[in-house]
Give the backbone structure.
Amino acid sequence: MNAPRPYKIPESVLVVIHTPALEVLVIERADRPGYWQSVTGSRQSLDEPLVQTCIREVAEETGIVIGSEQVPLSALRDWNLINRYEIYPVWRHRYAPGVTHNSEHVFGLTVPEPMTVVLAPREHLASQWLPWREAADRCFSPSNAEAVLHLPQMVHG
């Protein structure tokens, strides 16, 4: 018999992966086809640093290795934005009883050019590199779309 999965921590990261030309990677959820998003993921423990959550989630969901020669750690930037939102009812069972909101820390990751990604098939079905406005329009989550719309300001100041 499998042990029950621990509840998710209601604190996560959103990583907007983009090129210098502001092309943005979006990935389609396997559990909700047609729902596109940036890389997201919850902390595994309360003592996991958010940067480590970003590194782990980007690698798990795209195969992109932050800290490699092609994508140095300095390419990951904390945008100092936190979205607090109500967890969609369809996903609340993953959290402890009574947990209804999540705090999402937004990061940007600059890659040199659109890269081939390796998706985790249980999590995502497809990926696309899109111009930033199109990527924002594709995102199902309002907080994700808003983060992508901040991209030019975050990159160019």
Remarks:
- The CA atoms of residues 25 and 129 lie 4 Å apart.
- The chain is about 20% helix and 30% strand.
